[in-house]
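User: quick one, sequence for these tokens?
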């Protein structure tokens, strides 16, 4: 006798082994995708040389492509090839895109920008095409409703595999990018892109070898064409048949199209209405790889024993997902379910609210970061850094366009920044308080002249002495205001050679494990004053360095440093170096090594990003995991891939929103942009709540029908999706 006990039937249904091939495949594919995407923003900025706004635009255009193409992947899977062939063929295309990107990142091989974008386009088509198919294909391996509990577990394991791949790749690829040097560069993007390409090939192999274990259902015709025809026909009949009435406008197509198709379309549209506010959620979430990444590059990642790279901070997201997803499923959701709270739509809304809060926090962090940003003069304004290299104070006065004369005193061996001066000629006076300054007597203790200011730029103005005369000279080279894209300190030297015989040489920085040379040439026209020269500005590693300068005979005594400097992450420094101004002195009592911090170092630690990452991750678990499952369970059977694609299409529109905002450049401060997005999602959640209150779950509708009198108990049957398996 056949048992009708659901528990007995459940015991007979074994957990499908095929899903393990799918989970491993997803792990490898996500390793490939996130490993590549982790360093992509920096690749746009540091290698392809786009600015941060352009890099953000290209990053989100790529993301938009990845989530727009699922529509076509779903159509291909449901109507032509089936899910297995669609996943296999598009994965091969995907791997080709990875290889093209990796090769294009090698200098002097292919036209770099063009082939990099081509590779990304192919990757976008491949990853987007398989995206709606993989999770749905995994779901089809279960028998519903008998294995609904196992199905829910599968979606959790599936999402954990996504984040496990993301976790490892987010840790590894930044190390390959920065700590390995290749092809004459200080980084190695070809390797950082090449390893994900290898993992994608592994993903294809794993997926293929599971072929003989999969349950596959045949394609059911071009469902999207049928849907389009049905909708078009219904709209046409509604306007033509004015006397005919129906409860729903789609019922006008009932004379020509199947009633089940019409019912399925109604359910799809019922869900799609809920999707209207979803893009804003993704507009915020996906900025982790662009705006939040660039935010991290301007922060201090040192932990004493190691340094966290900006593109590694994103590892917090998958790490937390792996940790808290089981907690949500086994403890938090069951507790709330007993109280009748946190239905799927409530979870999605709560997750969106948490994502909005994370952007409020990121805006607050950005406000504190702004204090460490370079102060670039506005158009029509300039900045002068008056540097007194003398061992005595100097009085300075200046007059610039439409401003009264300003007086100030600069102490011995000191400096002061004068900001927001009008560009153009600036009349300057300098006076020594006494003709005797240190061990030098000045026959001319006053200087009067004109210094030219250049709009949006900053310059050092050196106050020194030559042959008993007070001299003031503006350097021709700009001050290093902009922080390095790498986050490393930037250092440049100004060397006052005055009566030294040496015409060229090196200023040398030396620490325990490295030596850095700054070449100089006396006749390089660095300033209007002869033999006052500057070096190139170089990026150096954070640390303390001894400074060595050539002696008057041009040689360097490595046992006698001129001084020491300490440079910190993100700081920009100009270092003034000179020997004694008294040519008769054998000592260096009035020489100096003066370190000037032109732009503040990155004093805000990267760990201050952890709160916003924790909150956005909690929001993601409630929002994204639930949304993935909701799209599957609320979809009509033959439209599940299409519904999955529709859910993912929201991500594309979210990235489009970010692209438009970044391209417009209407918001001058990043902090204000973060607050703008948090305000938008607050309004968006209100709309979502209104729509969610009107939604009726498919399960609720089934329960209503089951309450009707029936002659026999309803018995679970094998999922019709598995009624026929086809050989591939």
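Assistant:
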């Amino acid at each position: 006798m056949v048992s009708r006990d659901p528990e007995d039937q459940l015991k007979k249904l074994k957990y499908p082994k095929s899903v393990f091939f799918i989970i491993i495949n997803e792990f490898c594919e996500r390793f490939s995708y996130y490993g590549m995407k982790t360093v992509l923003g920096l690749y746009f900025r540091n290698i392809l040389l786009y600015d941060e706004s352009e890099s953000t635009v290209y990053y989100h255009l790529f993301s938009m492509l990845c989530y727009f193409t699922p529509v076509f992947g779903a159509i291909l899977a449901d109507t032509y090839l089936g899910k297995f062939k669609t996943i296999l063929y598009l994965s091969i295309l995907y791997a080709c895109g990875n290889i093209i990107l990796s090769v294009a990142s090698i200098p002097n091989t292919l036209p770099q920008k063009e082939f990099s974008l081509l590779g990304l386009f192919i990757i976008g088509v491949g990853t987007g095409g398989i995206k709606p198919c993989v999770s749905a294909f995994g779901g089809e391996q279960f028998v519903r409703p008998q294995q609904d509990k196992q199905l829910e577990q599968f979606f959790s394991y599936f999402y954990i595999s996504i984040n496990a791949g993301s976790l490892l790749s987010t840790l590894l690829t930044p190390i390959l990018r920065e700590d390995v040097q290749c092809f004459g560069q200080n980084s190695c993007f070809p390797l950082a892109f090449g390893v994900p390409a290898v993992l994608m090939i592994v993903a294809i192999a794993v997926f293929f070898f599971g072929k003989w274990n999969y349950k596959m259902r045949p394609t059911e015709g071009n469902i999207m064409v049928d849907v389009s025809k049905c909708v078009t026909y219904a709209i046409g009949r509604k306007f033509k048949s004015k006397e005919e009435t129906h409860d729903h406008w789609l019922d006008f197509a009932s004379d020509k199209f199947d009633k089940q198709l019409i019912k399925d379309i109604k359910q799809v549209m019922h869900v799609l209405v809920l999707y209207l506010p979803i893009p804003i959620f993704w507009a915020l979430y996906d900025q982790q790889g662009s705006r939040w990444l660039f935010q991290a590059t301007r922060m201090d990642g040192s932990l004493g024993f190691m340094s966290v790279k900006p593109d590694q901070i994103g590892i917090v997201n998958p790490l937390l997902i792996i940790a808290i997803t089981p907690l949500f499923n086994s403890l938090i959701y069951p507790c709330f379910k007993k109280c009748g709270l946190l239905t799927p739509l409530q979870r999605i809304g709560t997750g969106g609210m948490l994502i909005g809060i994370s952007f409020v926090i990121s805006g607050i962090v950005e406000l504190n970061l702004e204090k460490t940003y370079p102060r670039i003069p506005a158009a029509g304004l300039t900045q002068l850094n008056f540097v007194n290299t003398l061992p005595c104070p100097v009085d300075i006065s200046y007059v610039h366009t439409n401003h009264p004369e300003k007086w100030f005193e600069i102490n011995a061996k000191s400096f002061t920044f004068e900001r927001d001066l009008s560009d153009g000629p600036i009349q300057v006076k300098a006076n020594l308080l006494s003709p005797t300054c240190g061990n030098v007597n000045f026959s001319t203790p006053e200087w009067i002249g004109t210094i030219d200011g250049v709009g949006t730029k900053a310059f050092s103005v050196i106050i020194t002495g030559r042959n008993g005369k007070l001299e003031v000279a503006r350097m021709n080279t700009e001050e290093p205001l902009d922080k390095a894209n790498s986050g490393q300190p930037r250092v440049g030297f100004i060397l006052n050679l005055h009566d030294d015989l040496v015409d060229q040489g090196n200023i040398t920085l030396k620490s325990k494990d490295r030596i850095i040379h700054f070449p100089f040439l006396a006749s390089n026209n660095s300033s209007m004053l002869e033999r006052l020269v500057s070096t190139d500005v170089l990026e150096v590693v954070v640390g303390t360095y001894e400074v060595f300068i050539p002696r008057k005979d041009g040689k360097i005594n490595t046992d006698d440093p001129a001084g020491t400097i300490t440079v910190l992450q993100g700081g920009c420094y100009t270092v003034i170096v000179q020997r004694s101004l008294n040519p008769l002195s054998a000592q260096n009592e009035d020489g100096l090594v003066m370190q000037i911090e032109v732009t503040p170092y990155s004093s805000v630690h990267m760990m201050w990003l952890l709160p916003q990452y924790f909150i956005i991750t909690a929001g993601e678990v409630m929002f994204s995991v639930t949304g993935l499952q909701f799209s599957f369970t609320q979809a009509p059977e033959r439209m599940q891939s299409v519904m999955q694609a529709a859910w993912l299409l929201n991500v594309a529109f979210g990235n489009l929103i970010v692209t438009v905002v970044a391209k417009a450049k209407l918001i001058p401060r990043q902090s204000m942009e973060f607050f703008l997005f948090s305000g938008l999602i607050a309004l968006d959640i209100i709309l979502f709540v209104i729509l969610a209150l009107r939604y009726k779950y498919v399960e609720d509708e089934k329960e209503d029908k089951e309450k009707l009198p029936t002659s026999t108990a309803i018995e679970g049957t094998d999922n019709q999706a598995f009624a026929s398996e086809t050989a591939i």
